[in-house]
Structure prediction request, 280 residues.
Amino acid sequence: MTSTPVTEPAAAGVLVSPAWLEAHLHDPALRVVEVDVSRAAYDDWHIDGAVLWNIYADLRNAEYRPVPTPAVQRLLEQSGIAPDTTVVFYGYGPAVGFWLMKLYGHADVRILDCSRDTWRGEGRPVGSTAARPAPAGYPLGEPDARLRAGHAAVLDAIGSTGTTLLDVRTAAEYAGERFWPSGGMEPDGRAGHVPGAVHQPIDDLYDDRGAFRDRAGLREVFTHVGLDPDGELITYCTIGGRASTAWFVLTQLLGRDHVRVYDGSWAEWGKLTDAPVEVA
Prediction:
């Protein structure tokens, strides 16, 4: 049986308020997903009924490369997500989930417009028992090449006048002082940046509630990026989280066209022995 789509005022678009999500939290057509890099925060507490997507365990393989389509399909099915499900992401990396769903053409995807701490601080429903939704069938097609860039596309973009490579990591990562954002290096990897990449950290995207700033504030963040539709942007970071966030803001909130995510990002590029690397 086809479920009834969850409705919301059109002005809200891809962002949902905590009040709206609480009101619809147990709608059968809605699934809430927390995206994080470990189980620790989720096991401590999570939005009531939410499932967990662990970036390292579910969305990346042992070499930190993106998992293939069959693994994504299994994840969706185990999460109780069907083609007509409304999916709301929150947590450490909600834009990773949003971008992934759009990569495979899912129609109704949203992001909770506040931090997880704000949700709990406002006394909204939380739980500590892992959700186990009934499996759903979801036959995935091919990913949309207009949203994803592989390392070959990044290599082709070096020196191209039509494509800008956008490195959204910290200054230390860009300069080659560290491989991982936590400060560590990778034994078989090189730190630095893709030659010619524009450095554009994505600080100050959120207000003190963890909600996205208004359009004017978001435009201020992307001072080194043209927001007109001409030319292509390819965003990258370390494992795709910040790159997906930049893609989300640029395309969904600021209306920028022709943006792709290099989801292999530095975890892949920095370990390719033949990939060119620059340091500041």
